[in-house]
Design brief:
single chain; about 475 residues; alpha/beta; 3 domains; 19-stranded mixed sheet; nine-stranded mixed sheet; 6 helices; about 40% strand; elongated
Length: about 475
Amino acid sequence: MKKHMLALFLACTMLCTLGACGQQEESSAVGEGNSSLTDSADDSAADSRPADSASPDNSSKGEESTGRNEQNPVSAADTSGSGTDSTAEPSGNAGNPSSGGNDAPGSQGNTSDSGQHPASTTAPRQEQTPSVTTVQAETTPASEIKTITLLGDSVRFEGTGIAARGSRVGITKGGTYRISGSLSDGQIEINTEKKVVLQFDGMSITNSTGSAINVINAKRVTVELMPGTVNSLEDGSVQHDADRGALFTNDTLEIGGSGTLNVKSNYAHGIISDDDIIVNGGTIRIVSTKSGLFANDDISINGGTLFCDAGTNGIKCKNTISINGGTSILMGGTREEKGAIIALGGLTVNGGTLYAIGNTCTLPLASSTQNILAFNFASALPANTLTRIASGSNPLFTFTSPRAYKTVICSGSSLKDGASYTVSTGGSVTGGSNTDYVITGGSYSGGTDRGTYKSTGRISSFTVS
């Protein structure tokens, strides 16, 4: 019995031992399984590290940059250099190292990686910045001056955005274009959504059937009159209602520089804009069948010398005219409703020297900051009749006109509050100089005294019998 009991006990012990070993083997198998899952995750992480770390490896940096662009389509487009406007956003990112050349989502992803791999975020950011700067420099419109040489009946040019067929030139891109030479019967046409700068460098264009320059579309057109140059534009006398001037633009026109521009309009206006006209400098001489300057919006004269000898209105706009500087000699026609200045939205004179001579003229607003004298003659003075305005023996304004005129408005820094001014008409000047119908120097004699008038304030208006 004891032997049987001992045998049974030994058998049970062996069974228990075998069961425990089986459990250990099963547990070991499960552990290997867990180990393999962990290894798999580690391998996956290891596969992704070279793109984020390994900063000495340029290919890894390139992959990281590519990955960012795929996640950030705006940045990918911006670094392509395909368009002028695309450089703006990368330029801002390049100035902010924390952005890494991308927007906020890309930066957040890089921040989480940089905690584990400090070297990974620095190198790609440094690499992207120069490429953005280069793209910006290459796509800046004003960085290159394109040249157009006018050769009588043909054109030679250098630069993109220019097309020519015979004596017709097309500009289709923004930028700066330097123009020289002459066209005997041609035109420059501009059609772009960008800003265009035209540098007139001794150029002349005559067009027998339309405008010399026709701006169909542009964000803004600036004309620079190059120093020491004389330039000219002339249109044809045949009807061309689509571009009713020697220089026509649908958009804002700004004129500056120190050269000379002579404009002759044989059909309608000298210079016409469907938007604003701004004169900042240069010498501009316009002889026109209708208005010298015509704008649908505003006209601002800030500097330079502007002379308009116009068949209808010296300058006219459907909004406001402001004269802030320079010298303006504006002569209008003889028709009852035409004049030296017609400003439907109001005229202000804040500086410069003004001669306005015509059948009528818009009277400046009280908001003007420079003193103004206005004289309305009871009957029109014949063409080429002198008018002289003096303070005592000191002549201030002496001028004439190629046409009969009834209204004169003058302004300049020499006019004083409460001062008295004598008006004389007729007579002649000996030894003086006559430039654009304005006479300076010399000795005046033989005129008729038309009375003495005392300034009544900022704007003094008188009727001369």
